[in-house]
Amino acid sequence: MEHYTMNLKLKVWKQKNTSSKGSFETFEVKDISSEMSFLEMFDVLNEKLINEGKEPIAFDHDCREGICGMCSMYINGRPHGPWHGTTTCQLHMRAFKDGDTIVVEPWRANAFPVIKDLMVDRGAFDRIIQAGGYISVNTGNAVDGNAIPIEKEKADSSFAAAACIGCGACVAACKNSSAMLFVSAKISHLALLPQGDPERKTRALNMLAQMDTEGFGSCTNTGACEAVCPKEISISYIARANAEFTLAALTSDK
Amino acid sequence: MLNSKIPAGPLEQKWTNYKGHCKLVNPANKRKLEIIVVGTGLAGASAAASLGEMGYKVKTFCFQDSPRRAHSIAAQGGINAAKNYQNDGDSVYRLFYDTIKGGDYRSREANVHRLSEVSANIIDQCVAQGVPFAREYGGLLSNRSFGGVQVQRTFYAAGQTGQQLLIGAYQALERQIALGTVEMFSRHEMLDVVVIDGKARGIIVRDLVTGKLERHFGHAVLLCSGGYGNVFYLSTNAMGSNVTAAWKAHKKGAFFGNPCYTQIHPTCIPVTGDHQSKLTLMSESLRNDGRIWVPKKQNDNRKANEIPEDERDYYLERRYPAFGNLVPRDVASRAAKERCDAGYGVGSSRQAVFLDYKEAIQRYGKIECSKHGNHNPSAEEIRHHGMEVVKEKYGNLFDMYEKITGENPYNVPMRIYPAVHYTMGGLWVDYELMTSVQGLYALGEANFSDHGANRLGASALMQGLADGYFVIPYTVGNYLADEIRTPEIPTSHPAFEEAEKAVAERISNLMNIKGSQTVESFHKRLGKIMWDKCGMARNAEGLKQAIEEIKSLREEFWKNLRIPGDINEMNPELDKANRVADFLELGELMCKDALLREESCGGHFREEYQTPEGEALRNDDRFMFVAAWEFKNGNNWDLHKEELKYDEVKPTQRSYK
Question: Is A70 on the interface with B (CB under 8 A)?
């Protein structure tokens, strides 16, 4: 792979804390290698800022291999930037060229308040899981793993839904700030497995109710979430979750 | 002084006997007992969830924004269990034996046997939670092989096994949070342990959002805070992974076991430049089907695909015909280093070897074509079907490789090189996972106990979950049964006050250095010392130099560090400084430990001690012990030795030929 270096202009959202008002600031970085990751470019910028006696830009990141779901930058109007099926940490600078201006913002949604600069609070996602995103089985209660054969296709489909990393890009991309792709992935992951069957009705009802309580919007099927999901979670899970919800609402005894 | 509390009796009865005789806490008393769990990876999340289910009052802490982000999530390849679903000769004994041998006879027999015993329960538990393991068409669980073994006992979920297991444990944890048995504190970092009358009674944490210090009481404290591979700066660990919680415990009296035992993983994406912030692992499972090679000619500049078959050196298959590409990690890493040092490395840096999938694509392609009734397939059809199979097994890993390097590994072999991955060393614990401080436990990678000098692939997930789901629920009860008369200690107690004051002082000292160098720059320099002198190969002279270099780097750090921002706010630079300050102390102890151990074993390779073929040469007469270091003051440690006794397995020169 040919590599090259570039000089860039960055317009980055700066916000001191949740209660203060933020604004864009412009920064310049030089000699950025095309082999760097996007976050390594931010590392270079932050080192420069500290050396100049300024405050670095706060952003969330941890594993830097696309799986923890912590990184969350809204880059040039798209969550996680221009590459398909990619987290911010896996986006590499060869996606850009010399002289580019890159605009970087935090996730924007009422349910994800900004903590500082590009960091947001995604605690709402944990609370949605608390509402029912699990199978109620205490440690020590399990039967042999092979006692319940599961059709490979269903297991694979369940796995594809369970691949969600909970980053929140779906919410950030949605004009309604709906968390429907996240919620439906969890409902589907568990509803597709026989182990998840006993609780499937309460799970669907409670998780969707919690989604509303947290202030996420409704789904209007624009498909923006699927387009930006770094794990390429299919929007068909939303249809499945809606079916689960309808079935539960019509037949639940509660 | 060191009492490992290994139960008496025959090896295979020890755990059963322990469970049958340990003390229990009745449900009414459990509700009064508080347990602190630090870290929410596999060990922490599984422990917190299980203890919550049992009725204890649990408080859980993680520095990430959600417990689901802990670095266990990045584990790719799989989890071992002695299920023998493949009917290929596996058993609890064989998993035990492979793990002891893989650890180069430096782990405890009793712990490892217990690990093998509970391994099967882990799979059952995870399936019940809805972990979507890979399955065969008949609906049953699928297995694959991993390094250092000759059976197929590894359960997996594509290349995202750690993620799926962690989400299982995370969901169990969130369920307990909803039920109110567990209270969760995310974006909180533990900065000290509070010890009262010789017992761990709480912790001091910093709320990373507000910068405020908090005091939390617990009748017992469980550290599930992971490993310390980031002391090398470049490693496969997450950026935030750190030793701070374990190190604070160490300084409060918990011994540190075998700090020098570091696992260098053979298959990682090579370093590209100084900007590099971390290294990315390519799962060991890739060695199942991929073949590792270098050109037979030194400094060969041709592209991989231009090098004909007979000019390729499949050096692992050549040196280790019995295990081939599936030798254990330490062996594979050293063999890669040997080839690169001898001038056979590939890529622009020459610090890489090839991992090639061409043959696997062919092999799978032919099988698939036969399955489809096509017995005379064209080369294109074979390749097409072969790629589909490889994509299903390893697709996410191949995609990741392509994103990072810009090369398509379906077409050209991957370039890989060893990188720091896991630390077998950690806080010394007894059979009950208790450190040398009463009531202070260490679980998962944070302890030293099960992997000896080298961990086998797919065993870290097993150990984390074994400790959390199936060991600690019994052993912590055995301790807490005697604590039912201890009322909650108010956090206004002088010990809490003193601990918080010390933490606050250290933070303000760090902030007030007001020097000119960034935390990152110190961390990079420390990492370079550690990698060059305490990395894949070590020698006495280098280690002595490293100790001096680390000491002077540490002095410089405390004189010339610059941290921007304030104390009472979100300040990631301050968080990093707290962690790097501890790495700067740990690094020295690791070198001391490596210097002491005048032998080679597992991941610890001393150049002075090797066989004529370049294999690790142990010295069982002098070093068949766990080095447990007690912190005294400043740069002084006392060494305690726990002799390792092998009643069941007879230690021999490890051979994978």
Answer: yes
